């Protein structure tokens, strides 16, 4: 399971990966990220470029946005956003098996999907 597959799984169920473009949603996501890495909405189109959520809002300019130590590493394949307990990280598409938070289509129900390494 990678970032794209996690996103598709959420959408198949009529929801979305958690969107961290508001302080309130960021706080929810951070609660779960405190246990490790978390897939969140966020993709960049090119190496080292800005990150956007699914609605096209730029994420890395938000007042609460902070990179975790050593990030972004800006490798060519790190086009996806990940939230760790100490901040965001750019992440490879193929880096897999992180948990994610799925919000239903009305963004009222929050489901944490925890994946295990196989
Ligand atoms: Ca990185």
What would you note in describing this structure?
The protein has 118 residues and is α+β, with helices and mostly antiparallel strands. The protein is built from 2 helices and 6 strands; from the N terminus they run αβαβββββ. Strands 1-5-6 form a 3-stranded antiparallel beta sheet, with helices on one face. The chain binds calcium ion. The site of calcium ion has 7 residues, from β4. Calcium ion is lined by residues 71-73, 78, 89-91.
Question: How are the SSEs ordered, and which strands pair?
Answer:
Elements: H1 3-12, E1 16-17, H2 23-33, E2 38-43, E3 80-84, E4 87-91, E5 100-103, E6 110-113
Antiparallel strand pairs: 1-5, 2-3, 3-4, 5-6
Bound molecules: calcium ion.
How would you sum up this structure in a few lines?
The protein is α+β, with helices and mostly antiparallel strands.
CATH superfamily, please? Answer: Mannose-Binding Protein A, subunit A
User: How is the CATH topology named?
Assistant: Mannose-Binding Protein A, Chain A
Low-pLDDT runs of 5+ residues are: none
Q: How many angstroms does the end-to-end distance come to?
A: 10 Å
- CATH architectural arrangement: Roll
Radius of gyration: 13 Å
**Residues in helix, %:** 10-25%
Number of domains: 1
- Round the mean pLDDT to the nearest integer and report it: 84
* Class from secondary-structure proportions: alpha+beta
Instruction: Record the strand order, biggest sheet.
Output: 1-5-6
Q: List ligands, each type once.
A: calcium ion
Report the top-level CATH class. Alpha Beta
Report strand %.
15-25%
- The general outline is globular
| Record field, number of beta strands | 6
Q: How many helix segments? A: 2
Q: What's the main sheet like? A: 3 strands, antiparallel
Order of helices and strands: HEHEEEEE
């Amino acid at each position: 399971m990678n970032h794209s597959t996690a996103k598709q799984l959420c959408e198949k169920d009529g929801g979305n990966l958690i969107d961290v473009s508001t302080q309130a949603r960021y706080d929810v996501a951070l609660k779960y990220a405190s246990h490790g890495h978390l897939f969140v909405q966020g993709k960049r189109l090119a190496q080292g470029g800005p990150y956007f959520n699914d609605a096209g809002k730029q994420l890395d300019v938000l007042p609460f946005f902070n990179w975790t130590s050593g990030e972004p590493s800006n490798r060519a394949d790190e086009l996806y956003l990940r939230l760790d307990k100490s901040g965001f990280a750019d992440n490879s598409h193929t880096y897999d098996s992180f948990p994610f938070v799925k919000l239903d289509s009305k963004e009222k129900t929050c489901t944490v999907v925890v994946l295990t390494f196989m």
